[in-house]
Design brief:
The complex is a heterodimer of chains A (about 300) and B (about 375). Chain A is mainly α. Chain A has 15 helices and two strands. Chain A has a two-stranded antiparallel sheet. Chain B has about 375 residues and is an alpha+beta fold. Chain B folds into two domains: about 220 residues, 3-Layer(aba) Sandwich (Rossmann fold), CATH 3.40.50; about 140 residues, RNA polymerase II/Efflux pump adaptor protein, barrel-sandwich hybrid domain (OB fold (Dihydrolipoamide Acetyltransferase, E2P), Beta Barrel), CATH 2.40.50. A six-stranded mixed β-sheet of chain B has the order 6-7-8-3-9-10, sandwiched between helices. In chain B, helix 5 links the parallel strand 7 and strand 8. The radius of gyration of chain B is 24 Å and the shape is globular. The two termini of chain B are about 20 Å apart. Classes of the chains: A mainly alpha (about 300), B alpha+beta (about 375). Chains A and B meet through helix 10 and helix 11 of A and strand 6 of B.
């Protein structure tokens, strides 16, 4: 594999630079990653650049007018429909991430601190839902939350309610519930890893210095597991902002998110430049929101000391 | 030692499944005492320390700290503080925050807290390093932070879990001196867990030697080195030449034995001494044997030949074969007269003092200290 990697390496040194560089640790590292790097460049960077380029052009019926313009961004940022969709998408993804992290942390904590010799079995069980198709998992929530669904008939059978609750499905709540379930495993794993890395004697030291279980958790365990919490938050938040399938299937009218609008521009409306501008705006907003989350979580933890 | 012990351990046992980590241990440690738990790894010394700290709950028995029944008391409610083996410095806090960690709960006013942190850092000679990040500290500094963080709480007992084992030899010796003077300055009880017999001898007021979850002997360093009760204790605290000797006379306070080539030796009789087959184990420290040069004479002499020689700088370790002894003798000789130049095979004479022999209990018989 490594010979193939070296053969296809674009970082072949100029002969004048000497043969030593070729044998260096650095050269070998670059050779190892070069297939992946090429793949990423061709299939990630180039499309993104293309989208950015499109966002400054104009759709002229069937043709693309390639004169530079900010018109698409003006539309994306001022049209109330898009503004509402951006706000809702960010809100849903933030809420989803927050709930996912809050639900996942105790599970990760339990596995890490009380998993005993069966930690790997627990982790395996956590990943089981991911074995079925994402689409199936979303669909099964329709079965659970629907008018005649599992939840409604169950509650009615138990005598808690007289008639089915209609507000369960086809709204933003349904989207959040479904997304939290879909992404839980991806949040548990990074939190688990950062909890595993905590030296247990640090927690004993906190206890020894007078902290009870709750205070030692807040002052030692939580701050030291923050890298895991932050990555869990971002791992959930970034993809869910642009999620398309879940809002489409369980969101109804109130659960529509920005991805639906983007899809419409690339599809039915056939306005690729506007769709591109919406995509780029989403990327920027997500980056800003992510940065804000990271900073505020860090700040919050520092206050705990 | 004052009348009431600071720490009182009564018949404490700890089982991990069927494995006995502590086997009916009883021990009393006085106020202001520097006490060491010495033993090989797996002897139960760390389990005992963690039971005193509150990190481990004994299966049976009782621990009292300053008169308070503490067996089931959680660690945060005991008047003890611990210096961990790896120091357990909080990596997300700087030195000052580490030292102030336990003070936060006391809700002191800011000036008082600052003063106590500064005093603690002065005490361990880290003055002015309070803004230093935890990962910018050397091994010795980490250890000092751990000490300051524990001492700032003004504990009644400071527990030290092999605190010097991660340091290099030079720094370790320096920290031993500092630890001893620190203990004398603060005047509280220190309990040190160590597997290094020289560390225990140099630092302690008293030492408990542990094997297999039991305390084999509790005594002052001098007593434990010069009069070890059992063969194992003698062996663990430095070199010892062991001999099987035949019992000649068993009197009220002492015994006479026939120690092969060493002739008849009179030994003090320890409490509870018994022998089943008329033989006993006696021992003599290598440094109590002395080479005789030229026509020097001694009242008790032995001849032998050099079988092995190891040069240690200031001293030379010699292995001497003596006809009529099963095991060759080890001895340590200063290099003043040229012991380092003795060839292997050289015929030598050595002097010994019959009073330097100790009577050692066999381990099964004398494992439990009374």
């Amino acid at each position: 594999m490594s010979t193939a990697a070296i053969a296809s390496s674009p970082e072949k040194p100029a002969p004048a630079k000497g043969i030593r560089w070729l044998h260096g640790e650095e050269a070998r590292g670059l050779a190892m990653i070069s297939p992946t790097l090429l793949y990423a460049l061709a299939l990630l960077l180039v499309p993104v650049l293309l989208v950015i380029a499109y966002s400054f052009w104009t759709q002229n019926y069937l043709e693309i007018d390639r004169t530079f313009t900010f018109e698409n961004y003006r539309l994306a940022l001022t049209e109330p429909i898009y503004r509402d969709l951006f706000v809702r998408s960010l809100w849903i993804s933030m809420l989803t991430s927050a709930i996912t992290v809050v639900f996942s942390y105790p599970i990760a904590w339990y596995i890490s601190f009380h998993g005993g010799p069966h930690k790997n079995l627990w982790l395996f069980l956590v990943t089981i839902p991911c074995w079925t198709s994402y689409l199936l998992r979303v669909m099964s929530w329709k079965v659970i939350l629907g008018y005649g669904g599992v939840l409604n008939t169950g509650l009615m059978a138990a005598g808690v309610i007289d008639q089915p609750i209609t507000s369960l499905l086809y709204n933003a709540n349904a989207v959040v519930i479904t997304l939290v379930h879909s992404w839980a495993a991806f949040a548990i794993l990074p939190i688990y890893v950062s909890l595993q890395k905590i030296d247990r004697s640090l927690i004993e030291a906190a206890r020894d210095l007078g902290d009870g279980a709750v205070r030692s958790f807040l002052r030692v365990t939580l701050p030291l597991s923050m890298p895991g919490v932050i990555s869990a938050f971002l791992i959930v938040m970034i993809p869910t902002v642009g999620d398309y399938v879940t809002p489409k299937l369980v969101g109804g009218k109130d659960g529509v998110m920005i991805a639906t609008a983007i899809q419409a521009q690339f599809g039915k409306s056939a306005n690729w430049p506007l769709g591109a501008a919406l995509s780029v705006t989403t990327m920027v907003l997500v980056s800003l929101a992510a940065a804000a989350v990271v900073l505020s979580l860090r700040f919050a933890v520092r206050r705990l000391r | 030692m004052s009348d009431r012990p600071m720490i009182s351990i009564e018949n404490v046992s700890r089982y991990y499944g069927v494995y006995k980590a502590l086997d009916d241990v009883s021990l009393q440690i006085g106020e202001g005492e520097f006490f060491s738990l010495l033993g090989p790894s797996g002897c139960g010394k760390t389990t005992l320390l963690r039971s005193i700290a509150g990190f481990d709950v004994p299966t049976s028995g009782e621990i009292r700290i300053d008169g308070v029944a503490s067996t089931l008391l959680p660690a945060n409610r005991r008047p003890t503080n611990m210096v961990f083996q790896n120091y357990a410095i909080f990596p997300h806090l700087d030195v000052g925050e580490n030292v102030a960690y336990g003070l936060k709960r006391l809700r002191l006013d800011a000036a008082e807290e600052r003063r106590r942190v500064a005093d603690a850092l002065d005490q361990v000679r880290l003055t002015g390093l309070d803004r230093r990040k935890a990962n910018e500290l050397s091994g010795g500094q980490r250890q000092r932070v751990a000490l300051a963080r524990a001492l700032v709480m003004r504990p009644k007992v400071l527990l030290l879990d092999e605190p010097l084992s991660a340091l290099d030899k030079k720094l370790r010796e320096q920290m031993q001196v500092e630890l001893r003077s620190l203990q004398q300055a603060v005047g509280i009880t220190f309990i040190l867990v160590t597997h290094d017999q020289y560390e225990a001898l140099a630092l302690s007021d008293r030492i408990a030697v542990m094997f297999g979850g039991c305390i084999a002997q509790v005594a002052t360093p001098k007593e434990i080195y010069q009069h070890p009760r059992t063969r194992k204790v003698a062996d663990f605290l430095g070199g010892m030449n062991f001999l099987r000797a035949r019992l000649l006379a068993d009197r009220k306070g002492d015994v006479s034995v026939d120690a092969a080539k060493f002739g008849t030796v009179n030994l003090a009789k320890p409490v509870g001494f018994t022998t089943s087959d008329g033989h006993v184990t006696v021992g003599i420290r290598p440094e109590r044997l002395r080479l005789l040069w030229d026509d020097e004479k001694a009242p008790h002499e032995l001849t032998g030949r050099v079988e092995n020689r190891a040069y240690f700088g200031e001293v030379t370790h010699l292995t001497i074969g003596v006809d009529g002894l099963e095991q060759p003798l080890s001895m340590v000789e200063t290099n003043d007269y040229g012991a380092d130049d003795l060839p292997v095979g050289a015929e030598i004479r050595l002097a010994y003092d019959p009073d330097a022999f100790v009577l050692l209990a066999d381990d099964e018989m004398g494992l439990r200290a009374r």
